[in-house]
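Supplementary material to the annual report.
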Amino acid sequence: MDDEPTTEILEATFRALRERGYADLTMKDIATESSLSTGSIHYYYGNKQNLLEALLDFLYERHVDQLDSVMGTTYRERLLSLAELLLSDVDGRPGIAFRTAVLSVQAQAPFNDTVRAKIVEFDTAVFERFRVIIAAGIESGEFDEDIDPTIVSEFLATMIAGAHTRQVAVGRSLDPIYDALVDYVEDHLADGHMSRVTS
Amino acid sequence: MDDEPTTEILEATFRALRERGYADLTMKDIATESSLSTGSIHYYYGNKQNLLEALLDFLYERHVDQLDSVMGTTYRERLLSLAELLLSDVDGRPGIAFRTAVLSVQAQAPFNDTVRAKIVEFDTAVFERFRVIIAAGIESGEFDEDIDPTIVSEFLATMIAGAHTRQVAVGRSLDPIYDALVDYVEDHLADGHMSRVTS
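Predicted assembly:
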């Protein structure tokens, strides 16, 4: 099976979504971004709704690959690398264009159960990676055994979601939120942080 | 000037936006939610874009009135009342319906400068109220003088934005985020929190 035209259509949909948002997106906009006709796009994907769902699967695979590329010799390093991946605008990383497209799709989630289920997968992918790193860090003795990996991951996932929404919609920088997360990890997660403060 | 039909149109637009989202909203949907014809709605507001802008001004006034209704005899109480207003689903408060409409509009902000400017006003209204309470609490000696009101308010506004995005798009509860904010205020803001921990 040759999937080249479908990949080209999905890449074109992603570009058009970043530039126009979902509300004003038309099949014609997507055709303009690609070398294909609106007829070909309809042939492969039927309608805008199906195309959006296929795009979410396509972006999810890419997103998970990036999340899994996070490295570090300690759990603290892995946690901060993951936070940095999610809160920086370095070349080759998701970036504001990706987050603009995601916000546009998130706004559709309350009105479309298929889209919502896919948006939940994006959220869970981030939440679970934080939870696994924190749980392993506690197990290894690197993080304080009194912290709850689920509560901390919920907090981190919420900070990151808020930073993304505010960057896209309001134009706030991600940098102070990354700094706040680093402080939080240093102050709350490291085993013996209290004894360091009081000694 | 009789503003009854315009108020009715804006209330109907708000209901239709909560139920359908901005992407699929039509003038006909708004007419269905009101006692007016699509012709009357066009007469008063021209198009969907103008109507959205008028709705944002209408909701902003209401939002600011609610933010300003926050009470408390101490700055800590005022701060937590503000957090509770923003992170609870009690009757008569903004609620998930309001936040669903806001997310739908936030997704339009990158593509429309007028909408973006209004969304910035919503964000600034929350950020500034936190900043003013924290600055006054430091001034009064209730909060630690080493904290930076701008950094803390940025952090709180981001947590709240993230909790709203995740509630609407992913169905997460606001409760753990309210609890995390209460812990944060108790652990980081109160003057002498370090001496309490170590004494």
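The mean pLDDT of chain A is 89.
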